[in-house]
């Protein structure tokens, strides 16, 4: 038996950091995917063997610190579904760039192949809740918006404790610029917590204003009002700057995008490095792309919204 699960990466359009405070956010899946391939094996001793091309791990026996997120996903799945360890191998192959939610896709694809192998037939929302538990057990933070995008696909309105809602079947014309800086999210999350502790009133104002922008942005997306959506992106970026999660290179790429005709632009993710998003019209797209490339950034070409989330197929 062979089972293949594939799941997309993600980018955040609105609500970074506020989502971890119970506020709503808008996130979308992207057309860069991770595959997990489970192959049933025959062994007198029940063993799970794990390999990952991205992590350069070959045939490590479960549980392994080399793939701690996968190991935790298997552990929690088996606990919550009351299933025993069986003999199989799981191989992971990723085409998800840095800052696009590869950790969430690891969790999602692992749950996908296990759900199919053990025939537990878990619904999307059950997979999401399990995925959040797995992520928290390793990282200690995270609202689950990245896991939601990986499981559901499309453009989602997401809020902790609620099932995600699809916003549109239409695409957004986006340009994704990479800063060239890979920054770990943990220290940034800690910095925001410190800011919140020292400035509780100011932090609350920022998170409340981000929530208001998400509500406005939801309506703008549903109405295809890209001018307003761009304005809200700029306002969200200003609030993230106040939180202290932007950086000189992000600000430069965002400013150059707007100067060259983008409706709006902002960072996407924890901040400091990784990626920014510009919302553009088709007629300025070819102006914004070289402007970013000439300003110290690198446009990641052909990024589109992926309206398919987790896909799992079984082959006997």
Architecture blueprint of SSEs:
Blueprint: E1 2-14, E2 25-40, E3 48-52, E4 57-61, H1 68-81, E5 88-94, H2 102-117, H3 124-139, H4 145-152, E6 155-158, E7 165-166, E8 174-178, H5 185-198, H6 200-222, H7 226-243, H8 248-259, E9 264-268, E10 275-279, H9 282-293, E11 298-299, E12 311-315
Parallel strand pairs: 3-5
Antiparallel strand pairs: 1-2, 1-12, 2-5, 2-6, 3-4, 6-7, 8-10, 8-11, 9-10
Helix pairs in contact: 1-2, 1-3, 2-3, 2-4, 3-4, 5-6, 6-7, 8-9
Helix content: 40-55%
| CATH architecture group name of the largest domain | 2-Layer Sandwich
Structural class: alpha+beta
Task: Show unreliable segments.
Answer: none
| Average of pLDDT | 97
- The CATH topology of the largest domain is given as Ribosomal Protein S5, domain 2
What's the tally of helices? 9
**Main β-sheet, in a few words?**
8 strands, mixed
Sum up the overall morphology in one term. globular
Short summary of the structure?
By secondary structure, the protein is of the alpha+beta class.
Structure overview:
With 316 residues, the protein is an alpha+beta fold. The protein has two domains: 2-169 and 305-315, Ribosomal Protein S5, domain 2, CATH 3.30.230; 174-299, GHMP kinase, C-terminal domain (Alpha-Beta Plaits). It contains nine helices and twelve strands. Strands 1, 2, 3, 4, 5, 6, 7 and 12 form an eight-stranded mixed β-sheet that branches. A four-stranded antiparallel β-sheet has the order 9-10-8-11.
């Amino acid at each position: 038996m062979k089972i293949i699960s594939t799941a997309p990466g993600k980018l955040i359009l609105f609500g970074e950091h506020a989502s971890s405070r119970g506020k709503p956010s808008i996130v979308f899946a992207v057309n860069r995917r991770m595959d997990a391939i489970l192959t049933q094996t025959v062994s007198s001793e029940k063993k799970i063997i794990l390999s990952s091309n991205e992590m350069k791990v070959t045939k490590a026996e479960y549980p392994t610190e080399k793939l701690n997120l996968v190991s935790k996903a298997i552990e929690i799945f088996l606990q919550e579904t009351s299933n025993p360890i069986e003999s199989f191998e799981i191989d992971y192959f990723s085409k998800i760039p840095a800052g696009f939610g590869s950790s969430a896709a690891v969790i999602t694809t692992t749950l996908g192949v296990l759900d199919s192998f053990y025939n537990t037939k878990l619904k999307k929302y059950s997979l999401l809740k399990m995925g959040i538990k797995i992520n928290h057990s390793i990282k200690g933070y995270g609202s689950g918006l990245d896991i939601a995008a990986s499981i559901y696909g499309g453009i989602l309105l997401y809020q902790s404790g609620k099932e995600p809602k699809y916003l549109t079947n239409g695409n957004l014309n986006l340009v994704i610029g990479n800063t060239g800086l890979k920054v770990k999210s943990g220290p940034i999350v800690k910095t925001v917590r410190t800011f919140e502790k020292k400035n509780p009133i100011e932090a609350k104002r920022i998170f409340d204003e981000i929530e208001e922008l998400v509500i406005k942005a939801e309506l703008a997306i549903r109405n295809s009002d890209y001018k307003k959506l761009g304005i809200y992106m700029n306002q969200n970026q200003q609030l993230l700057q106040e939180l202290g999660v932007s950086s000189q290179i992000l600000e430069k790429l965002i400013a150059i995008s707007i100067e060259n005709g983008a409706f709006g632009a902002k960072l996407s993710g924890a901040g400091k490095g990784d990626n920014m998003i510009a919302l553009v019209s088709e007629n300025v797209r070819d102006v914004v792309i070289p402007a970013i490339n000439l300003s110290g950034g690198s446009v990641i070409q052909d990024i589109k919204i992926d309206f398919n989330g987790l896909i799992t197929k079984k082959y006997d």
